[in-house]
Write a structure and sequence with these properties.
Mean pLDDT: 96
Helix content: 10-25%
Number of helices: 12
Strand order of the largest sheet: 31-32-34-33-35-36-37-38
Low-confidence stretches: 1-14
Radius of gyration: 26 Å
Distance between the termini: 43 Å
Largest sheet: 8 strands, mixed
């Protein structure tokens, strides 16, 4: 394989030349058509020339954006000025201990701590992730579970970025690490005997979590018995424990179907029993309290209903409906306690917490003050309690933790994120608007701006989107966005179809053979926002990552004229080649989200939007693409091929830069300061293209 010179380091910026990947024309006859893949050789991960090409892209990107580095550094310092770098979380109580995490200024990672009996007791450091990260280029803490007797800590770590976690067990009394370990752990849960640990592992190639093991402390994990083997390639399996500690749960699920097994936590050698056998297109989630299973299920409608079943006979024949399915009020989640339960519903795309008393069946909701917000359960570790903790924030209200008295129906603020640097909430506004899509569907959009900087139809507009997997894009507070707002940028999140904001039906309307709705919704949202005066035409920046990167690639191909600048992170842009390769991680399980291109109808439809396959000879906006060499979800070669094809075909002189984190994962760098730097580098690029340079 021959590559052109990696990069030309010229004396002047105008002479700087990007690396050019060799075009090797290949055609694959599939479903009566041809799939062209001119840059497939970039998949050769171990080829030294591939790595050299990626390093050349990094060199070019650094030099092409050299003039923006002082601006990026200024944004970084400005962002840090709004972060209380030495801080701690709200402590929660479990089995006689108060647990919390804290951060220290200058350190990248959290420290996990606890205090015995009261908050005035001496601090016990359970795990300092900064120490785990010493000498590593990446460190991510995965699962984290303390045994019932509070003596043992089981946790998992990834020191590469590929989301393959290793099991560790620490004796919290002595501080020593035990020899018990295993590889590729996805979930874990203790049994009640303080010596048995259940864990699920993923297949090394496909990254499908398919096996559940039972481990006895002090034994060789290589001899651990498999208690469940999930044979269906669409499914992943995970283990958990109910809040009251009485039962272990094993959930096996695909994108559209699920099945849950249970086992008494005090009988780890017992037989796992199925609650309700799997049925195609029926998903259910399970919680438990007082010997009763609470089951959220979509068997009658995509909006879900809530039923109960006795633990002794939990099958569908014995279900009792508590809350019927309501199309306009989807049920999203539930939390069960000794004397009450809490249901998270969605109303017009926003979360609502409904508290129901078990003795008198009375129901009431927790009030919130703003038109767009995030409202969710906080850490509620105790089953026998009269209070419920929840998190609240909005794009202008910092993250806050409240404790709700169920009897008095009153909320007490426990902590609100401190925002240094003179942040004044009253200077900003948040709005929730519905923008009509082409087919008349109203798309909810969250709009934020600084009041004294806003001039209708004059401001730069920033639009963020995702729209896949039924995932909801929360309306959260972000210190990283303050530098944009303070420079007059109107920031927005469009909650397009394919996401979960309006329930499962909203997801269904933007996946498989309706996936193009996701892209047209984003375009319609952007045009609608401009029409309402929230931005100035010609000054639109957009951003998305992962499946949101697919969104960026698709809408940029469809309407390159609409956007001035595009930020595209770890993008799933080579849809056809990836979904046709069943040996790749996640491919088979993803058929239920995107479609199976081995079927002609799906192939033809997916080919209409796959970003890599639809790059053509025309003018494109300024584009920054970022990926990670060790990304496990979207392989580095997808954006590499996409950028190579863009370079070969685009007819404009707008910048196209490609940053590759050679030691990062799907979320980029693992350290908090490094992630902020990456974000502010992207924002410096975008703001510069929007005419803002300081």
């Amino acid at each position: 394989m021959v590559l052109a010179p990696a990069v030309t380091l010229a004396q002047g910026a105008s002479e700087l030349k990007p690396p050019i990947a060799e075009k090797v024309h290949t055609e694959k006859p599939i479903n009566g058509g041809l799939l062209v893949d001119d840059y497939g050789w970039l998949r050769e991960r171990t080829n030294p020339r591939v790595k050299a090409y990626l390093e050349a892209e990094n060199t070019y990107a650094e030099q092409a954006t050299a003039d923006e580095k002082p601006f990026a550094e200024a944004l970084y310092k400005e962002t840090l000025s709004h972060i209380k770098q030495t801080d701690e979380s709200v402590p929660y109580r479990r089995n006689g201990y108060w647990y919390y995490s804290r951060t220290e200024e200058g350190k990248q990672y959290q420290v996990l701590c606890r205090k015995k009996g009261s908050l005035t007791a001496p601090e016990e450091v359970m795990l300092d992730v900064n120490q785990l990260a010493a000498g590593e280029k990446f460190m991510s803490l995965g699962s984290f579970e303390v045994s019932d007797d509070s003596n043992l800590l089981a946790f998992t770590t990834d020191n590469v970025g590929f989301r393959q976690y290793k099991l560790h067990v620490k004796d919290l009394r002595s501080g020593k690490m035990l020899p018990d370990t295993s590889e590729r752990i996805d979930s874990l849960a203790w049994a009640a005997d303080n010596k048995t640990l259940f864990y699920s592992t993923e297949d090394a190639t496909t990254k499908r979590s398919n096996l559940v093991y039972r481990h006895a402390l002090g034994t060789d994990a290589k001899s651990d018995p498999v208690v469940f083997d999930e044979k269906d390639e669409r499914f992943d399996v995970y283990v958990d424990r109910t809040r009251d500690g009485k039962y272990l749960l094993m959930a096996s699920s695909s994108h559209i179907t699920s099945e849950t097994r249970f086992l008494a936590a005090n009988a780890p050698d017992g037989e796992w029993k199925v609650i309700e056998p799997r049925k195609d297109n029926v998903r259910y989630d399970v919680d438990e309290g007082n010997g009763v299973f609470y089951i959220k299920v979509n068997d009658t409608d995509p909006s879900y209903r809530l039923v109960t079943a006795p633990v002794a006979t939990p099958g569908k024949a014995n279900w009792t409906e508590l809350i019927p399915a309501r199309k306009e009020t989807p049920i999203e989640d539930m939390d069960v306690f000794k004397s009450f339960y809490v249901v998270t519903e969605r109303v017009k795309g926003l979360p609502v917490l409904r508290v129901i008393s078990l003795d008198d069946k009375r129901s009431h909701t927790i009030d919130v003050p703003e038109p767009a917000y995030l409202l969710s359960a906080a850490r509620n570790a105790e089953f026998d309690t009269g209070t419920y903790r929840y998190n609240y924030q909005s794009p202008i209200t910092p993250a806050s933790t409240f404790e709700y008295d169920v009897t008095k129906q009153t909320s007490k603020l426990l902590k609100q994120q401190e925002v240094p640097g003179g942040y004044d909430k009253s200077r900003y506004a948040v709005e929730r608007v519905f923008v009509p899509a082409t087919d008349g569907t109203g798309i909810p959009v969250t709009v934020v701006y600084r009041k004294d900087k806003f001039k209708r139809a004059e401001n730069p507009l920033f639009v963020y989107g995702y729209g896949s997997y039924g995932i909801t894009m929360p309306d959260t507070f972000s210190t990283s966005l303050l530098p944009l707002l303070d420079r007059g940028v109107v920031t927005t999140v469009t909650h397009i179809r394919g996401g979960g904001e309006m329930g499962e039906a909203w997801h269904d309307a933007g996946k498989m053979m309706t996936k193009r709705n996701t892209f047209t919704d984003f375009i319609d949202s952007t045009e609608g926002l401009l029409a309402k005066g929230y931005g100035k035409p010609g000054l639109v920046g957009i951003e998305g990552g992962s499946a949101g990167g697919l969104l960026m690639g698709a809408v940029t191909n469809m309407r390159p004229d609409l956007f001035k600048v595009v930020l595209c992170e770890v993008p799933f842009v080579d849809v056809m080649n990836t979904m046709l390769d069943a040996s790749l991680p996640l491919t088979v399980s993803e058929y239920e989200e995107w479609g199976n291109p081995n079927q002609k109808a799906a192939f033809d439809y997916m080919l209409t939007y796959s970003p890599y396959d639809n790059v053509t000879k025309k003018a494109y906006p300024a584009i920054l693409v970022q990926t990670s060499f060790d990304d496990s979800q979207v392989m580095y070669w997808e954006p590499s091929k996409y950028v190579a094809k863009l370079r070969a075909l685009k007819t404009d002189q707008n910048p196209l830069v490609f940053f590759i984190n050679m030691h990062g994962g799907h979320g980029g760098s693992s350290g908090r300061y490094d992630r902020i730097r990456e974000q502010d580098r992207r924002y410096a690029f975008m703001l510069t293209q929007l005419g803002i340079t300081q």
